[in-house]
Every structure is written in C-alpha cells, then in structure tokens.
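Let's do one together. I've listed all components of the complex below, 647 residues spread over two lines.
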Amino acid sequence: MPFKQLLIEGLAMGACYGLFGLAVVIIYKTSEVVNFAAGTMAMFSTYVAFHVITLYGFPFWLAFLVSLFFAAVLGVFVEFFFIKPAKNPTLLGLIVITIGAQLLLGGLAGWKWTADQQAFSIPFSYKVIYEPIPGFHISQWAIAVFVIAFIIVTFLFLFFKFTKLGRAMRATQQNKHAAKIMGIKTDRVFAFSWAFSSVIGVTAAMLISARTILDPDFMMEPFLRAFAAAVLGGLMSIPGVLIGGGIMGLLENFFGYAFPSWKPITAFVVIVLVLCVRPSGLFAKHYVKKV
Amino acid sequence: MDMKRDYYEDIELFKSGTILFWSILFVAALFVAPLFLSNYHLYLFNLVMVHVIVAVGLNILVGSTGQIALGHAGFFAIGAYGTVLLMTKLGLPFFPAIVIAAFISAFFGFILGLPALRLEGPYLAIATLAFGLAIMHIIGHTELFGGRQGLTAPVLNIGISQWGLNWVIKTELGKYYLILIFTIIMVLLAINILKTRAGRAFVAIRDSDIAAEVIGINLTMYKTLAFAVSSFFAGIAGGLFAFVLGFFDPFTFNLILSIIFLVMVVVGGLGSVMGSIAGATLITYLMYDLLKNVDEVPIVGNLLVAFSGKFLTTTGIDNFNLVALGLVMIGIIIFEPLGMFGAWIRIKKYWKTWPF
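Okay, and this is what the predicted structure of the assembly comes out as:
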C-alpha cells in the first residue's frame, strides 16, 4: 500500500515547501517585494554550511549556526544594497532586481563551488525508518521536518502576536507612512524581515537538500513550488502558505506517483487553474483597487 | 521638445527627414555589412536580429501594455518547433510554415492572455513562468517533438519544392539576408502597431486599466490581443532561430532564456522600440560573445582567471556571465530605470537646453 507512504512523504515535502514559502511571504507581507532570489539565497547559505563542514571540519550544529548567521547577514545585505537604492521602483522593477540578485548569487555559487553535485547530510536521515503504528512508516527526516516546521510556525505566531518587533512589522505592512509617524524605524523593520526570511529559508533549504542533493541549482524547483504554494495561499497569510505547501506536496507526490514524467509541472497546472478561479489565491482577501 | 501639432504627426512613421535619412543609412549599412564580417560574426548578427524580433514583440506586451511576462521562451520554442515540424512532417514550404507556426504561437498567447485578464503583479508573473516551464516539459516528454534529444532543422529551402522552385540557403550569408528582411518587416510592423488604435489602447491599459475600461477600451480584447501579438513576434523569431542554431533541444528554451528576453526589454527601455533593439543587441553581444569566453578577453580575462584560481574555482568561470547579467539587471533598475532609451532622452535634453 503506497498510499500512506505517499501521504506522509507528500506532507513532509509539503511542510518544506510551506516553510520555504514562509520566507517569501514574510518579505511580501512587510515590503510587497516578491523575492525571486529567495531560493538562491538559501542555496548560497546552505553551501556555506557545506563549506565549513567539509573544509574546516566543523560539527554540524556549529555549521548550522554559522549558516544561519550568514543567511541573516546576506538577507540584510541584499535588502540594503539591491532593494533600497532603487527609487520608487515599479513591480516589474522589483522583480527584475530580485531575479538579478538570483542570477548573481547563483553565478557566484557556481563559480565558487562548481556545478558538481554534492551530498549534504544532516543528522536526520531519510533512510532511517520508524514504524510507530504497524503498516505506517515514517522516516527520521520526515519527523524532523514536522517538528521543525511546528516550532517555526509556533514561534512566528507568537512573534507576530506578542512581541514589539512583530507588531511593528504588522504595522509597517498595513501602512508604511503611518508606522513611521508612530515612531517605528521602518528601515530596520525591512532589514529585519529580510534577515528573518533568509534564516527561515536556509532552514528549509537544508531540510530539502538532505532529501535531494546539493548543487547550485537545487533550490530552483523547490523555490518555484514554494512560491506557487505561497501564491496559492494568497501571498499574505501565514496559515495560507502552510496549507498551500501541504496541497502542493500532496499533489506533487500523488500525481508524480501516477504519472512520473509529468511530476514537475502538475503543480503549476493546478496553480494556474486555481488562479483562474480565485485570482488572489485561496486565502487572501481581494482588495478593490482605488483609482 | 516633442510637441505634436496635429494627429498626422502622431502616427507618421518617421518623425523628421533626419530620422528617415539615418534610418535608411543604417539599413543600407546592414545590407553591406557582410562584406566585412567573418562567418562567426554573421552567426552572431543572425542571433542578434532574432533576439531583436523577440524583444520588440515582448516590448509591446511588457513595455506598452504593462503586463509581466516571464515565459516568453515558451512562445519562442513553439515558433521553432512549429516551423521545423511543419516543414519536416507536413512538407510545407518555409514561408507558410513559419507564418503558421507564429499563428499557433499567437493562439497560445491568446490562451495565456485569458487568465491574465484576472491576474496582476506577482500572480501574473507566476502564471507566465509556469507556462514557460510547462512548454519546456511538454516538449521534452513528447516523442513527436524529439523529446530530450532535440530536433535538427531541415535544409533551409525558401522556395516551394512541390512546384519545382528550389532556393536552398546554405551559408550564414544567405541566412543573414533572410533574417535581416524579416527583422526589418517585423520592426516596422511593431512601430506601426503602436501607432494604431490598438497601440494606443495598450498604452492606456498600462497607465491605468480601470481608467482605460471607463473610456471604452475593451480590456478582454486588447489584453489578449497584446499577448497574441507579442507571441506572434516570438513565434516568427523562434522559426528563424531554429535555422540559426540548426539543432536545438528543450533546454535551449529554459527559464534563463525567458529572463534574458525580459532583461533585453528592460535594459533597452520599456515602451520604446528603438530601445528594445539596442537592448537586444547589447545583451546578446554580452551573453553570447563577450562573456561567453570571458577568460579569453585580453587583460581582464587573465586577471579573472588569476582571481578565480586564488579565491574561487577556475572551472566555474563560465558562471561569470550570469554574475554580470545579474549586476546589469540590478544596476539598470537602480541607476537608470528607463534603460538605454531613458539615458538617450536625458542626453538629448541636456544638449538641447545647454547651457541651462
């Protein structure tokens, strides 16, 4: 019976997509920038972890912390040097900038680490399989994904609801100028949201690379799926992107099992069909534009 | 500066005798240029002209109508595969084949234009991107389209072999003139489209689609028309591209190619046909010639090789063109959002009003 297997695998992959989609959503929520570079930024930070592990022999958890720190710096760097200097950019302008950052970072990674495929292992292997209930197999990797996703989402929920910075971020999203008048340093909020998104992105990227491989392009497909999941959820809502990610992972796994060669595009076809019916995703409120 | 006094001035093809003179001189120069060019440079010119056609078409959609398109490599692929398959499988002559392929491409553009009616911003970006990827995968998985192995273009016979009229083009030189004539026709077509009722409707939709609807522009018709026209251009260009390359596989038409097309339009200047031509020329030269073998460029190449040997890897130096393209994309939006056309306007204004 592959059904339960597909279900669990799909949900785990979906949780990865959902987590990664969160990285996209956090930036979109605060600054209305669609970050096409998210995948490559996460890939780059994962390579940093790989680099310190293989070359300097760091233990995994230390490398993980180094990589999180690097990701945060990278996020702030991209925001400060690429996004902020643009004067009143249009939506297309922002998309071009982030795609440019994606090509730049992807090119640098390929230059530094070449296009060779590497194996990146985390302490949670997908080959170690438990059977908690008879006939119900779950890998160590899947458990790790669920636990980490749960921790991050809970943290985010509490963060946005109760901390001062979280409230500042929500205020900035609702009205940047009003937030400024209220004494919120919106520049810092933007920098922080980029760092935050980058850190969540690299966590998801490590989980994904442990399941697949590590090369300069490995985040391309997961990023597109995660982005599609975020669009499905409406680009604005955190529960939405998780549900979107889940739908994405399940669809991909079940269709991929039935029609293996069409696996890469089933997800997109579904997205386009959903968007035709609900143009702003499943969970977003559709605001009427003022003229 | 650019004051229009009557309606005719708004629609005339050449604004002044000076522009007409220089345009004719430029075209004449292109016709005699092959006398001084090697075969490799002819190939490069062919590639540039094919990209000019795509960029001019994409400009109608992105620059004039203001829609985001990240999947134009898909239409390009439809043009290339359509032309080659119509010629080899159905035995159609070249000219009907390329026109039919372009119309098929335009039909797909129309189909993609339908969801675009309701989508905007990032949602439209993901939908077009998905379309481009879907086309690539469908071609790669279908036996008819040659699968992953790709297709080889047939002999370029622009006569009609069924009637015994054979005119086979074998050399790069012959292809150069064929593509040049196509390019001139398509560019004139694009300029003229932008001066018609439809062209003005596109610009109105870009500036505000709600206002455009209020003044009586049929959004359904003109948005899908913009997509169809733009993909028609990409289809024609794809058909020519098939013969420039001679051999192609699905991965030729990947996401990077779509991005390169978009960059051409943005670098050239959104909404300007001349800008698109300049942008396509510049980006094609950078991506397919100068930076392709960056380690062979004098002085800079050696420096880069030494630098990458010390800090990075020398095998990965091919990635330099991606790095450069990324920097160009970021730089153009930060420093000159209107692209080369914007820079040209600024220089012109500066000299016209000098010394004030």
